[in-house]
Design goal:
alpha/beta, Rossmann fold, 2 domains, six-stranded parallel sheet, 18 helices, globular, binds uridine-5'-diphosphate-xylopyranose, binds adenosine-5'-diphosphate
């Protein structure tokens, strides 16, 4: 097999952008081109002001600055990039289906299939095609079937190389991964991808498996992580009625080396583009094979997560004397976790939706999320008209403006800066009694209570 000189990545999103930037930084002799059909997104990746990159990740600007224009290129010319590449990563979005069979559960593979067809139509030389997007098990089979039936005499080898990076720590996770997983059938193709990662990842951390194990491992890793969050969130509700403190419980159980301390932070509910989608995929696959007990077991992780979001919103309503109609509720945070501008499946969206149903006035402040994105998220739910969302929701750029004259503050994202606000100034500007509902157990109860806030935190 030829040495890999040119790599193309289709999809310049949260996965493709950071991942391929790090590959380019670490492999200066390989030319990496990231393509996307979204012209605005590519323009933003090419923006001379690195503050305008379309994905916010700590440290990403430095990686892009080191490689862009040297061996890292962003382009909208998908055909050219496919034609020239030795290896093609597919990093396009695979949202949950919103129509037809598997609606609300199965992954929509429309974008993946379009990519495969485009590669099939354009390629004139042999290629290694790497699945990077999270996909249901056996997607590689579909890819292979499309690529092997072009009749063009071009050979395609398909690899699965799931991405385990977490947003907010993407660059760190890519630079120093716990493991790299490569699934495939062709030894030479597998070796070609191993050689790329071996530029910076110790060989013993690069695992190779068959295609299906690799695809399934990605879903299972996310399902296990989400399950831990739902498990501790279930216990948070129990803590609230029994007088236990969920942080103390997490600490006590996390010191058992068999359980471990990570992913035991109770919250208003997990969000992000992966957890819910991947579990729904797992549930869908299990049901397809008539494994209903397996499907029900994993589905419960999602049901508990939905319950946690609803219960947080209901607690706000109940505490504010059973009505939030016309009351001003300030949201600190809209992103699904700190250090990202990504809002996909963020708990904040669902909590807001619930409060808006009760005609609350919601004022949002998030250090990285734009007003446009907040409205887009709410409009996407389709619960009320876009006009109603704009009438009830205001997005501001100054946190003190958000909380001014508010009946209550709800902390939805664990941004560090919230801890350092002038809480005495905030208290002075708020309606009395001044309520804080901390969905992240982020703030200091003692400090807030001394200032006269009525403070509620998940799991206390
Ligand atoms: C996840 C996986 O971690 C990553 O390996 C995979 O590639 C993509 O999906 P991500 O969604 O970016 O990454 O973020 P993650 O840190 O896993 O957090 C997911 C959600 O769970 C967030 O909303 C977070 O706030 C929440 N969470 C996480 C908790 O509520 N408590 C915890 O203890 C950990
Ligand atoms: P992820 O979190 O998986 O990276 P994103 O939605 O952030 O998902 O990014 C996926 C990107 O893939 C989007 O920018 C989208 O425009 C792009 N994309 C989807 N299908 C194609 C295609 N056929 N050709 C080029 N780009 C595509």
């Amino acid at each position: 097999m030829r040495a890999i000189k040119k790599i193309t990545c289709i999809g310049a999103g949260y996965v493709g952008g950071p991942t391929m930037s790090v590959v380019a930084q670490r492999c200066p002799e390989i030319e990496v081109t990231i393509v996307d059909m979204n012209t605005a997104r590519i323009a933003a990746w090419n923006d001379s002001d690195l503050a305008n990159l379309p994905v916010y990740e700590p440290g990403l600007d430095e990686v892009v600055a080191a490689a862009r224009g040297r061996n890292l290129f962003f382009s909208t010319d998908v055909d050219k990039a496919i034609e020239e590449a030795d290896m093609i990563f597919i990093s396009v979005n695979t949202p949950t289906k919103t129509y037809g069979k598997g609606k609300g559960q199965a992954a929509d593979l429309k974008f993946i299939e379009l990519c495969a067809r485009q590669i099939a139509a354009v390629a004139t030389s042999d290629k290694i095609v790497v699945e990077k997007s999270t996909l249901p098990v056996r997607t590689a089979e579909a890819l292979k079937s499309i690529l092997d039936n072009t009749g063009s005499g071009v050979n395609f080898h398909i690899l699965s190389n799931p991405e385990f990076l977490a947003e907010g720590t993407a660059v760190q996770d890519l630079q120093n991964p716990d493991r790299v997983l490569i699934g495939g059938e062709d030894a030479e193709a597998i070796q070609a991808l191993v050689d790329i990662y071996a530029h910076w990842v110790p060989r013993e951390k690069i695992i190779t498996t068959n295609l299906w194990s690799s695809e399934l491992s990605k879903l299972v890793a996310n399902a296990f992580l989400a399950q831990r969050v739902s498990s501790i969130n279930a216990i948070s509700e129990l803590c609230e009625v029994t007088g236990a403190d969920v942080n103390e419980v997490s600490r006590a159980i996390g010191m058992d080396s068999r359980i471990g301390p990570k992913f035991l932070k109770a919250s208003v509910g997990f969000g992000g583009s992966c957890f819910q989608k991947d579990i729904l995929n797992l549930v869908y696959i299990a049901r397809t094979y008539n494994l209903h007990a397996v499907a029900d077991y994993w589905e419960q992780v999602i049901l508990l997560n939905d319950h946690q979001k609803v219960r947080f919103a209901e607690n706000i309503i109940k505490t504010l004397y059973n009505t939030v109609n016309g009351k001003k509720i300030a949201f600190l945070g809209w992103a699904f976790k700190k250090d990202t501008n990504d809002t996909r499946e963020s708990a904040a969206i669902y909590v807001a939706d619930h409060l808006l149903d009760e005609e609350a006035e919601v004022i949002v402040y998030d250090p990285k999320v734009s007003a446009e994105q907040v409205y887009k998220d709410l409009d996407y739910l389709g619960t009320r008209s876009p006009e109603a969302n704009r009438r009830l929701v205001t997005v501001v750029e100054d946190p003190y403006e958000a909380v001014n004259d508010a009946h209550a503050i709800a902390v939805l994202t664990e941004w560090d800066e919230f801890k350092n606000y002038d809480w005495s100034k905030i208290k002075a500007g708020m309606k009395k009694p001044s309520f804080v509902f901390d969905g992240r157990k982020l703030l200091d109860r003692k400090q807030l209570e001394e200032l006269g806030f009525v403070y509620y935190a998940i799991g206390e």
